[in-house]
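Notes from the 1:1 (GR / supervisor)

We went over the backlog. Supervisor wanted to see one worked example end to end before approving the batch request, so GR pasted a single chain during the call. The sequence is below; no edits were made to it. Supervisor asked that the structure be written out right there so they could see what the output format looks like.
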Amino acid sequence: MAMADDHKEKPKAYIVNLEDGAVVESPVKVVFGLKNYGVAPAGVDKEGTGHHHLLINASLSDEDMTYPIPADDQHRHFGGGQTQTTLDLEPGDYRLQLVLGDANHVPIDPPIVSKPITITVK
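Structure output shown during the call:
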């Protein structure tokens, strides 16, 4: 039996203001985009919502996607429901990717992740 919301577009996370291959200066502003899903702070367990995590030069394995996302310099948490940040980055290449987490920082299932992009800080 088909579900009533099958016609809905899938949720999508994306980085609004930076394109893959962008050359930027530090500090780097990163704006988080999210379609067809809501943003709620960590600890708020409401269907259809989550909060952003920004992975910097990191990735999560399929197994990692079943556990809370670590909180460190490569796994930035935005549990207050923030939709942007400013990063102080040294010159070099960086891979950025958004991962939406639930109330307990566990990636949403099925995963809502942005396409990874690479930026160069000059």
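Supervisor's comment: The chain has one domain: 12-121.
Batch request approved.
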